[in-house]
């Protein structure tokens, strides 16, 4: 029992409630929101420290011991993801201060932002499947509001599709939970793990597992990403960065958790399905990233490629690749948020999102240019930056498990990332300015640059200190490979 | 009884999916609403239906109804009501602004 675990939920929740009352006073809202965000980081750091020192922490709501009642569980994976979430959402918040506009701030941007964090943190920390659904819904309802806030025509039409896709997938989620409850008679993840290990993973469980995979793949944008490029182009940059960094990764976390803890008995069926979906995701995402010259689209398809790469690590499921999955997940969340923020600044500076009409920005925005250059190399996985270690571990795991074709495609996807982002870098920052007449006075980007610079510094720190971060991600990977650690910690107290 | 419920769930799913595949936004929302209700019935059915026993684990209970599905459905109903009402408001707003409720005309992403 450790009451610390409730803080990543209760702090944003209370902050959001306070923010609702302050909605007409923008400056007050900013202060409250920033304070809440910083407190949240502190709580997350404490949890990571606690898990590091004392192993997996659990919290039994209302004193009901598992398998009854609601249980919160923080293993190293959950703790690290909560920490990453709080840190990068704070950076996005500071970016939002300078870019979101007073009109949106007055119409409850800040409370929805914090409610989104409640849902995301809850999804990472919860220890039973139905609560996972509830936290997903908290997160999704806030995301519906955030994506439509502002009410432009484009936002309205994209939100309609986004909501429809998510309602249908949530419906399937509840159906899958119903089937699983009918078969196993429990929804506590640790208890489920034991029950299914006893009874064996037969045909019915396999069907349920695939149903879960479809649901989570829809949320994560793994293969079923048809809704993602459109929906993620609609909202303003700060919201886009939050979505790209957090929402899809929650889906990936759910896949990693359920398929390492509950449905791990028949990897030749479930995990190879994940693997093939990951391959198709990388290939199709790669085609998308190269095909378009709209900055929004290029970045969105890069999110898709990242999802495919992480899922490839989950599919191979060796200790090395699981360590890599955790490491790369953290890196990818930060780097994708940074990529969206830089993309937003780029569009603001150029006045258009069409790559073909950009050029020559290097003269006026050298800092922006070099930051974009660095994040490109971080995403590709060049050593001093944070992408390298995770990518190396996942690739090593892929070779060790003998999936040579998959590993080859995964390696090739890095080249596609490099090509698509370098195309943006060269197209936007070199050459001549296409329309000198349309160039206004330089856009003020100072406040925005500092938020992005903080994330870039984080990428650099994680990259240089990968030895230390690896020791944490290795602890998380250990739980993913050996479910007994998780079930023992939750059920035997 | 379970068989009847399964058939009812199946029919609700059929109608829901049919409505979602139509072009009118209003029908699509009603379709999602029917789908979620189908799923709630499914949740109820999967925990096995029982008559005449309270959902309490008494001292010497020989039979009791499983309370968990009821709790789950309650939570899920609240969520689905919230989402459906939000969807209705959004559809109304979109109809006002985009001047159409035909999903065929809302395809693509171009235009502001």
What do you see in this structure?
The complex is a heterodimer of chains A (493) and B (112). Chain A is mainly α and 493 residues long. Helix content of chain A is 76%, strand content 2%. Chain A is built from 20 helices and two strands. In chain A, helix 3 (76-99) runs antiparallel to helix 18, helix 8 (189-199) packs across helix 20 and helix 15 runs parallel beside helix 18 (446-464). Chain A starts with 6 loop residues before the first helix and ends with a helix. The relative contact order of chain A is 0.11. The mean pLDDT of chain A is 90. With 112 residues, chain B is mainly alpha-helical. In chain B, 64% of the residues lie in helices and 0% in strands. Chain B has helices spanning 2-20, 25-46, 68-98. In chain B, helix 1 packs antiparallel against helix 2 (25-46) and helix 2 (25-46) runs antiparallel to helix 3. At the A-B interface, helix 6 and helix 7 of A face helix 2 and helix 3 of B.
Q: How would you write the strand order of the largest sheet of chain A?
A: 1-2
Distance between the termini of chain A: 9 Å
Model regions low in confidence, pLDDT < 50 over at least 5 residues of chain A: none
Low-confidence stretches of chain B: none
Task: Tell me the layout of helices and strands.
The complex is a heterodimer of chains A (493) and B (112).
Chain A: H1 7-21, H2 26-54, E1 57-60, E2 71-74, H3 76-99, H4 102-106, H5 109-125, H6 129-148, H7 153-184, H8 189-199, H9 203-220, H10 228-231, H11 237-261, H12 270-291, H13 295-316, H14 319-350, H15 366-380, H16 387-400, H17 404-429, H18 446-464, H19 466-481, H20 483-491
Antiparallel strand pairs in A: 1-2
Helix pairs in contact in A: 1-2, 1-5, 2-3, 3-5, 3-11, 3-14, 3-18, 3-19, 5-6, 6-7, 6-11, 7-9, 8-20, 9-11, 11-13, 11-14, 12-13, 12-17, 13-14, 13-16, 13-17, 14-15, 14-16, 14-18, 14-19, 15-17, 15-18, 19-20
Chain B: H1 2-20, H2 25-46, H3 68-98
Helix pairs in contact in B: 1-2, 2-3
């Amino acid at each position: 029992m450790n009451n610390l675990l409730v803080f990543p939920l209760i702090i944003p929740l209370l902050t959001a409630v306070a923010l609702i009352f302050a909605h007409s006073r923008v400056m007050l809202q900013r202060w409250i929101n920033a304070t809440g965000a910083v407190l949240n980081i502190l709580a997350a750091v404490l949890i990571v420290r606690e898990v590091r020192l004392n192993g997996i922490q659990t919290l039994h709501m209302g004193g009901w011991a598992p398998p009854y009642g609601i249980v919160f569980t923080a293993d190293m994976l959950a703790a690290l993801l909560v920490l990453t979430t709080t840190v990068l959402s704070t950076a996005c918040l500071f970016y939002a201060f300078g870019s979101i506009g007073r009109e949106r701030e007055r119409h409850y941007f800040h409370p929805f932002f914090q409610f989104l964090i409640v849902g995301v943190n809850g999804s990472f920390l919860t220890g039973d499947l139905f609560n996972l659904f509830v936290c997903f819904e908290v997160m999704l309802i806030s995301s519906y509001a955030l994506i439509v806030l502002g009410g432009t025509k484009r936002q309205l039409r994209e939100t309609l599709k986004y909501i429809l896709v998510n309602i249908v997938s949530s419906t399937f989620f509840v159906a899958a939970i119903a089937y699983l409850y009918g078969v196993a008679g429990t929804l506590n993840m640790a208890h489920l793990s034991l029950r299914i290990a006893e009874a064996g993973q037969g045909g019915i469980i396999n069907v349920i597992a695939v149903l879960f995979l479809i649901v989570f793949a829809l949320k994560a944008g793994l293969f079923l990403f048809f809704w993602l490029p459109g929906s993620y182009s609609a909202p303003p940059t700060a919201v886009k960065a939050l979505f790209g960094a957090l929402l899809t990764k929650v889906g990936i976390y759910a896949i990693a958790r359920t398929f390492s803890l509950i449905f791990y008995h028949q990897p030749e069926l479930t995990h190879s399905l994940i693997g093939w979906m990951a391959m198709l995701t990388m290939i199709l995402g790669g085609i998308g990233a190269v095909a378009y010259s709209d900055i929004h689209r290029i970045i969105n398809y890069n999110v898709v490629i990242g999802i495919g790469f992480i899922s490839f690590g989950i599919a191979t499921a060796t200790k090395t690749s699981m360590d890599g999955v955790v490491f790369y997940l953290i890196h990818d969340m930060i780097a994708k948020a940074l990529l969206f923020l830089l993309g937003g600044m780029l569009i603001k500076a150029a006045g258009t999102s069409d790559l073909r009409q950009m050029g020559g920005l290097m003269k006026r925005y050298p800092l922006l240019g070099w930051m974009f250059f660095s994040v490109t190399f971080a995403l590709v996985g060049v050593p001093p930056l944070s992408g390298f270690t995770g990518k190396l571990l996942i690739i090593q795991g892929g070779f060790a498990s003998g999936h040579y074709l998959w590993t080859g495609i995964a390696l090739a996807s890095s080249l596609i990332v490099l090509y698509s982002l370098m195309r943006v870098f060269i197209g936007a920052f070199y050459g001549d300015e296409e329309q000198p007449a349309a160039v206004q006075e330089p856009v003020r980007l100072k406040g925005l640059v500092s938020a992005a610079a903080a994330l870039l510094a984080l990428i650099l720190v994680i990259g240089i200190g990968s030895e230390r971060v690896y020791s944490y991600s290795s602890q998380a990977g250990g739980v993913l490979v050996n479910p007994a650690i998780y079930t023992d910690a939750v059920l035997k107290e | 009884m379970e068989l009847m419920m399964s058939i009812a769930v199946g029919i609700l799913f059929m109608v829901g999916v049919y409505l979602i595949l139509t072009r009118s936004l209003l029908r699509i929302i009603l379709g999602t609403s029917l789908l979620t209700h189908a799923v709630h019935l499914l949740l109820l059915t999967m925990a096995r239906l029982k008559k005449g026993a309270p959902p309490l684990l008494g001292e010497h209970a020989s039979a009791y109804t499983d309370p968990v599905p009821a709790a789950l459905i309650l939570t899920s109903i609240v969520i689905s009501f919230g989402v459906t009402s939000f969807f209705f408001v959004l559809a109304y707003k979109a109809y006002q602004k985009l001047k159409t409720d035909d999903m065929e005309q809302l395809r693509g992403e171009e235009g502001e």
